[in-house]
Amino acid sequence: MTKILNVHNLEKSYSSGSKQLTVLHDITFDVEEKETFAIVGPSGSGKTTLLGLCAGLDRPDTGSIELCGTELSSLSEDERAVLRNQKVGFVFQDFQLLPTLTALENVAVPLELQGAKDASEAAKVLLEKVGLGGRFDHYPSQLSGGEQQRVAVARAFSNRPSILFADEPTGNLDAETGERIIELLFNLNREAGTTLVIVTHDLDLAKMTQRILRLKGGKIMETNEQQ
Amino acid sequence: MSSNKSRVSFSWLFKMAWRDGKASGRKLILFMASIVLGIAAVVSIQSFGENLKDNIGLQSKAMMGADFKIDLDQEPTEDVLSIIDSLGGAQAREIGFTSMAAFPGKDGTKLVQVRGIEGGFPFYGELETIPEEAAQTYQQEGGALVDVTVMTQLGLTTDDSIKVGEVILPISGALRSIPGSNSFFSSVAPPAVIPYRFIEESGLVQTGSRISYDYYFTAPSGTDLERLDEVLDPQLDRLEADLDTHTSTSERLGRRYDNFGKFLNLVAFVALLLGCVGIASAINIYIKGKLRAVAVLKCLGATKRQTFMIYLLQIAGMGFLGGIIGTIAGLILQQLFPLLLEDLLPVDIQMAFKPQIILLGVLLGIFMAVLFALVPLIGTLYISPLQALRVQTNGNKKKGKAELAVLGGIFLFILLFSYWLLQDWKYSLAFVFGIVVTFSILAGIARLFMKVTRDNFPTGWGFPARQSLQNLFRPQNQTLTLVLAIGVGTFLISTLYFTKDLLLAQASLEGQNNSPNMILLDVQAGQEKEVEQTIRDSGNPVLDDIPIVTMRVQSIDGRTVNQIREDSTSGINRWVLNHEFRVTYRDALSDSEVLTSGEWVPEVEEPDLIPISVSDNFVEDALVSLGDRISFNVQGVVMNTEVRSIRTVDWSQMQPNFTIVFPKGVLESAPQFRVITTKVPNEDASAALQQELVRLFPNISILDLRQIITVVEGLLNKIAWLINFMAFFSIITGIIVLLGAVRTSKFQRIKESVLLRTLGARSNQILKILALEYFYLGALGTLSGILLSLISSQLLAWLLFDTAFVPSIFPLLVLFPAITILVIFIGLTNSISVIKSPPLEVLRKESY
Q1: pLDDT tens track for B751-775
Q2: Looking at residue A149, which CATH number applies to its domain?
Q3: Which of A10, A158, B38, B453 has the most CB within a 10 Å radius?
Q4: Is the ipTM of this complex over 0.95?
Q5: Which chain B residues touch A104 with a CB distance below 8 Å?
């Protein structure tokens, strides 16, 4: 199998007042194409920071990250943005829909950024797929939390990403709605053949993935292979 | 990877800007309002100024009544007459002077500007009279045209007559307007037009009278008037005459109104700057609210340039729209100006739309919006996409540098714009310095207040008082913005108010108890005893009896005036060479004079060189100093003098003041006339004395200072009205800024208020917290503004008006409570939804 994400000797620290705070220390792992992968750990263990680095949202202090065959450190900030637009999808804990755009416009944005001509049509298909066919023109403030996250999932798949990063996708939802979102996420993932990297502290959710990476205090404790 | 280039087109950026702007429209209304008002202020003033200039140019012939004229203030010599003849002879001539006029059968006398006209004057424009035909018939009928205001005031009709000196003429009609008449001067001495042939009969043309002689010409079309001016003016100058063409006169007039326009422009510019504060504060909070969306867009693959451009386009679009609306509002507003300024303007203004002004308004709207939004906009460039994942990153040093560059740009913009308005680097720098100092002091006060409150926090106060005080210095507070907005607005309004007070105080007679309020001019030698007796008989005192001798400068330090005129390198002001000086002689300084250098010589006995005293402005204009020699031509006799002392003169004192003073013992036997002053207790006494004096001594002109003060007050009130009108822009913009600041801080307050509601706070507790916070802010801003205006007015009083400044209580009594209440009102009405709606509903509504 081809590796889609290859992380090697990653270090990241932030300055907090006069102190340097090491958030990630000597992180090495890889993820294969179409694999489902979970990063788990307690709060403050560095899960979200690791996800951000893997998606090219920030630069590590040392170490390397190869995403979709491209070494991220060789790219400028704008080139990384373009790479994200073409290869990466995101689902956030607090949905992060653009509040001034309708559901349809939110889903269409990644495609429009690619310069796609049929962005609106494709977005409509996706919204219907997530069960929001009648909500095209609704603004985020007019949708429930579960509906907003479904729009976010549709947006994440709109650019047909090679890899999808989900940061606590059920963290802001009740159990029942969360389950439906996870089901949707995994179904679409299977259909599209996308690699799925989920950051979560929900072990039940993590167990649904093929592999789990456990983080504690910025270090890898273990990597488990699921059946 | 297929390509590292983004394929987004410019149209997508527009689309995103539109989508986002459409949904955020409500939040941007105040931002737009700031632009609209600022632009409206600038456009209305600019457009009005341009129209005024154009109209003066277009109506220049009608204003002069001829193509050109030769004027002089003494009877023309043979040389002057031969120049007039060489031009084919004048088509019309006029003799003008001020004199008292009486109206037989009516009570009341009036100081009028007598204009004796012969020939077809005016050749352009018209004599507007009631009845209309009077303008044509008065010459044949041998009648007079009397100013319409005088006619109304004294209840005169065409059945009455006017007595000027020794001549009595029937009144042919009321004069509404005449070319060459200045409305301010007309208020002091309204015109009375009579046929030229009666002037001599009046007996008023005599020694000491200020008489002007005007010869009017029309020129065949195509005549190069500029060339004519160049050739003839130097020749006429030597003969103490002057040539004015209609174009040069209108240019001079235009320049005079230019200064007035520049002042108004500055007031408008301040309103614009206040609008810019509004833009900056509104956009700052607006963009802060967008940073999360920017981070998300970056996660989705938008580059930093794209995200920056989305909001830049949005703001430029709003600036464009604001510029258009502001320009339209300005063009509508300018129509009001001629109504406001009716009596002050030299011409009837036909308003036209100027394309360059429209372009200026629209471009200025875009430029201002973008420039003042750049600081917060730069934030979008440096926001990390990680923020979408709730990861806080460190600040960016590059951002600080970019912000500094933008602040430099803003400073440069203000400097260049004010230079464009004032055309003078010194004034522009002073203006910008003033603005920077004002803003810095206000910002300093706000910061100091926050620090002092934090350091000395009254822990013993009740909950609402403590909570509201804490709101002033906690993160995301609006103290700085609101104190700046309220402070600048209040500062402007109260400074304008104080300045008006200063101007009026300077002109007022109140407090000058021993100053005369009636001045008798042109009292001939030999008349003074009888005149003084008449004054005393009427129960009034004779305050001064001042002898006056007229003379002209013959030479300065051995160089004749003609030699100086021909020397193009000479810096001596031309008026010194041409002026007929009215000189007095006395042995002591007057109340309005202070000796600054040299020695005061009270009296001399037949000296070779007469020691004289000159005023400091004469020293500057004639380029003389102590010890310099000046020869004067005193009606044919040359007198050699030496500058022995220099005085400063307070010209604003309402009494006869002199540039040149001789010592006693020299001029006593020279031909002279006298100025006598008195102080009458009231209007009735003034009218009675005037009538008696005019009856007995028709040659005497009487200046009733009360009337002049009334005219000056009227004029100042008119200007003050206009200034208030412009200040109104500042107030409205200030309110907009205030509204913007209050609304943008609303979410902070709402979140907290909802939390307090959830924890069980009652409506009146929340209201109290909010009201107190806005009270602190309103009071601090208003007081700071008033304090600053007191300082600036004191400086103006010292440096510019040279007068004592007694601040009026109005700003404290009216402005302070009014603006503070306004701030509380705006603050509370914007937060009322928190109290009326359930907490969850509010949070949900406000979170997007």
Answers
A1: 677 777 777 777 788 888 888 988 9
A2: 3.40.50.300
A3: B38
A4: no
A5: none
